UniProtKB/TrEMBL annotation:
Keywords annotated in UniProt: Membrane, Transmembrane, Transmembrane helix
Membrane topology: Multi-pass membrane protein
Main location: membrane
Keyword check for Membrane: yes
Molecular function via GO: calcium channel activity; calcium, potassium:sodium antiporter activity
Tagged with keyword Isomerase: no
InterPro entries named in the record: K/Na/Ca-exchanger, NaCa_Exmemb, NCX_ion-bd_dom_sf
Name recorded for this polypeptide: Na+/Ca+ antiporter, CaCA family
Pfam family, any one: Na_Ca_ex
Residue ranges of the TM segments: 9-35, 55-79, 91-113, 125-158, 178-196, 216-238, 245-268, 280-297, 325-342
Domain of life per record: Archaea
Residues in Sodium/calcium exchanger membrane region domain copies: 21-160, 181-342
The organism of origin for this protein: Methanothermococcus okinawensis (strain DSM 14208 / JCM 11175 / IH1)
Length: 348
């Protein structure tokens, strides 16, 4: 009788413990999502008061603000000596952004690429991913992180000089005073910092309870959780037929995830090799860029066959009208992501 009561009490205690861990994780995720929104809104308004252009705001504050959950979470995970969660969150979010978010968006409605500048950015992102694959194939250290961060700064300067970004929620920010904007920025940053600690601690406790590695938790639960803002933004944009925003959101977020979240994590502590995950990430990036470039490749082939004078890729890109990632391509991205999760979880 005594042992039966003890076992029930012990089992009840475990249930309470896992429920508490889930609650802590969800509270952290809530603070991460709302905190990043407050930070972007407040800091964007401050930049407006300082006469910073919409373009610069979009290329810097918004790009980093939407990836703030991944950045802070990965940095805290590295500080807590949980490299599996750090790399799982940063690199896993990149995989989820393409395989899941872009895939779902294309499945809902074809993602239309309207501007050649998006194509150029995708090529830069592909080159950046190849560099990531080469220098990080055997793990990430301080020098690797520094290289990735410096390259990201170069990308930002290029984007500011050559790209175009939409206005930053001007209607919401017009009514906001400078004092309110400062409060939003500070509270948002504090919410993200506290939320990242709760989120990582909850994920760590869940992984311990389930007996799985922190890397698997990082690449699945944590990566998906911190990518939820991008998912909501992308679905909203695709319903409004704004394919460039979807792709810009995916590419910009992934650049920040690698150049900040992963780079800073590598600077803080050594991150062991994740070769399989790196390979999947590279495959998804190559497929995304190939799907985006379909019409451009077709135009080049046609010009080559017709032996016209517009075989130069720069001239062809100037005449670029549009391309799209259709539902079949979106489904292929989702299938690759699902196979990745099943393989990572040792189900297949």
């Amino acid at each position: 009788m005594f042992f039966t009561l003890f076992y029930k009490f012990f089992l009840f205690g475990e249930i309470v413990e896992i429920l508490l861990s889930i609650f802590i994780l969800l509270m952290g995720l809530l603070l991460l999502n709302y905190g990043s929104d407050w930070f972007v809104l407040g800091s964007s308004r401050i930049a407006k008061y300082l006469n910073v252009s919409d373009f610069v705001i979009g290329a810097t504050i918004v790009a980093f603000g939407t990836s703030l959950p991944e950045i802070i979470t990965s940095v805290y995970a590295s500080y807590a000596h949980l490299p599996g969660i750090a790399v799982g969150n940063s690199l896993g979010s990149c995989i989820a952004n393409i395989g899941l978010i872009l895939g779902i968006s294309a499945l809902i409605s074809p993602v239309i690429v309207k501007h050649s500048s998006i194509l150029k950015n995708s090529y830069i992102y592909l080159i950046y991913t190849i560099i990531l694959f080469i220098i990080g194939y055997n793990g990430f250290g301080f020098v690797d992180g520094l290289i990735l961060f410096v390259l990201l700064l170069g990308y930002i300067l290029y984007t500011i000089k050559n790209g175009e970004t939409p206005n930053v929620e001007e209607e919401s920010s017009k009514k906001m005073s400078i004092i309110t904007a400062v409060i939003y920025t500070i509270v948002g940053l504090l919410a993200v910092i506290i939320g990242s600690e709760l989120f990582v601690d909850g994920a760590k406790d869940i992984s311990t309870f389930l007996g799985v590695s922190d890397k698997i938790i990082g690449f699945t639960l944590v990566a998906f959780g911190t990518s939820l803002p991008e998912l909501v933004v992308s679905i909203t944009a695709i319903r409004r037929k704004l394919g460039d925003i979807v792709l810009g959101n995916v590419i910009g977020s992934n650049m920040a995830n690698i150049g900040c979240a992963l780079a800073f994590s590598g600077m803080i502590c050594y991150i062991p090799p994740v070769k399989f995950e790196m390979e999947v990430n590279l495959i998804l990036v190559i497929l995304m860029v190939a799907y985006m470039s379909k019409n451009l490749i077709i135009d080049m082939v046609k010009n080559r066959i017709n032996k016209t004078n517009t075989t130069n890729i720069t001239k062809i890109m100037k005449n670029f009208k549009y391309s799209k990632i259709g539902r079949i391509e979106g489904l292929s991205l989702i299938l690759i992501y699902m196979l990745f999760i099943l393989k990572l979880s040792n189900i297949i």
